[in-house]
Amino acid sequence: MKKIALTVLFLFLYTVTALAESDVYLNVARKGMEKVKIAIPDFLPEKKTFNINANELNRSATVLRSDLHVTDYFSIIWDTTLINKAFLQSQNSSKMDFEEWKLFGVDYIATGTYTYKSNNQLTFSFKLYNIKSKELILEKKYQGKLNALRLIIHNFADDVLLLLTGEKGIATTRILFESKTNGRKNVYVADYDGVNTLRISDKNNIAISASWTSDNERVFYTTYQNDNPNIIEYNVIKGKKRVFSNKRGLNNSIAIAPNGILGAYCYSKGENADIFIRNMNTAKEYNLTNNPAIETSPTWSPDGKRIAFESDRHGGPQIFMMDVEGGNAERLTFEGNYNAEPSWSPDGDKIAFTAMIKGVMRIAVVTIADKKIHYLTPESRFDSMSPTWSPNGRFILYSSNRTGEYQLYRLNMESGTTSRITFIKGGAQNPAWSFFTR
C-alpha cells in the first residue's frame, strides 16, 4: 500500500521574514466586523519553468483564495482578470504600484511566484502587502516537491491568518473519514477541505472509527481482520502499523488523551460494552465505566482530566461525562431518547453530538455548565451525524445524506453556513479532524 507521510510532504521552509508588528492585527475576528478585502492574483513563474504546465501552477492561487475565504475574515476578489494584469505589470517593472492597487479598493494583496527545477524541486515565494500603509508586511519562501504544492499554499494561508488576526489557521490540518470507494469501508485521509484523498487502511479488510493523536503522528482505527474487530495503530510518519488491541471481542472507538499517554477505547465481550483506559507506555489498563450498560464513543476534555461518552444505562443512549480516574459520573443530555457520538470542543465548554429527533439524526451541542442543548442542523428528512470539531473550535465537520449518499459537510459555528467538502463515489462518513499541525 502507498505510504503516507502527513508531516514530511512539506519539506523545507528556508526563509522567513515577518515585517509586521502586532498593531496590524485585524479586528475581523470580532463578530459583526466588516471583512477585509484581499486581492490574490494568479501566481507567476520567476523564470522559465522546466517541462511543466505553468498554467496549473498559476491557477493554484485558487487554493490560497479558498483557504482565506473559509476563515470568514476576508472578502476575496474572485474575478481576477484585472488584478492578474496589474500583478503581471508590477512583475515586469519590479515595482509595486500601491496607488493602482488602491483603485481596486483592496486592503491587502497576496502574491506568489515560483521556480520549478528538473529535480522535481518547487520553490514558492509569497508576499503580503498592506495597501493602505504601502508596506510589504510578510515575505516567505517554501521549497518542496511538486506533490507538496497544496501544502505549501496551505502553510502560507495559515501564516497570513496568524499575522493579521493572531489566530492559528486550519488550512494545514487534515481529516480522517470512512468511505466505501472500494466496495467496503476503509479509512481515508485528506486535506481539511476534502482534497488529496488517500486510503491508509488495508483495502481487503473493513476499517472504521479512526482517530488522531494530538501530535498528528499516529492514527488509530478498528479493522475487521482475523474474524475479530481489532484496533490498529498506524504511524503516519514511518508508514508502519502495529496492533493496539486484539482481545477477543469488540475493540472499537478509541480516543487518545491530549498528552498522548492514555488511550480510551470501547471493549465488549458479549452484550456488555465498557470503556477502558490504557497507559500507552506501560500497556496497563483499567475499566473506566464498569457498568452493565453499553458504553462507547469516548472523547477527551482538552485538559485530559475528564471523558465524555455515550451510555444506555437509563434506557436509550445519552451523553455522560466522568473523571478519568472513574468518579463523578454525570449525565449531560436529557432531551430525547437518542443522543450519541460525543465530541468535546477545543475550549472545553461544549460537547457536540448526534441527536435523533422524530426519527431523524441532527447535530447538536450541549453546554456543559448549564446542560442547555442547541441544535445546529435544521429539521429535515435527511440525517446529519458524527460531529468533529476543528482545532480552533470555529467549525464542525459532520456527515449527511442530504444528497442521497453520505458526504462530509463543514459548519461555520459563527455564521451557521454549511459547505459540502467531499464528492466521493462511495460516500464519506464518521470524520475526525486533526489537531493543529504547527
Describe the structure.
With 438 residues, the protein is mainly beta. It has 2 domains: 12-165, TolB, N-terminal domain (Rossmann fold, 3-Layer(aba) Sandwich); 174-433, TolB, C-terminal domain (Neuraminidase, 6 Propeller). Helix content is 12%, strand content 42%. The chain is built from 5 helices and 31 strands. Strands 1, 2, 3, 4, 5, 6 and 7 form a 7-stranded mixed sheet that branches. β25 (360-367) and β26 form a beta hairpin. α2 (61-70) crosses α5. The longest helix has 17 residues, at 149-165. Mean pLDDT is 91; it is low at 1-11 and 20-24.
Largest sheet: 7 strands, mixed
- Fraction of helical residues: 10-25%
Number of discrete domains: 2
Mean pLDDT over all positions: 91
What is the strand content? 35-45%
The number of helical elements comes to 5
The CATH top-level class label of the largest domain? Mainly Beta
Just name the CATH architecture of the largest domain: 6 Propeller
Q: What is the alpha-carbon Rg in Å?
A: 23 Å
The tally of strands reads: 31
Structural class by SSE content: mainly beta
In terms of per-residue confidence, which ranges show pLDDT below 50 for 5 or more consecutive residues? 1-11, 20-24
Shape: elongated
CATH fold-level label of the largest domain: Neuraminidase
CATH homologous superfamily classification of the largest domain: TolB, C-terminal domain
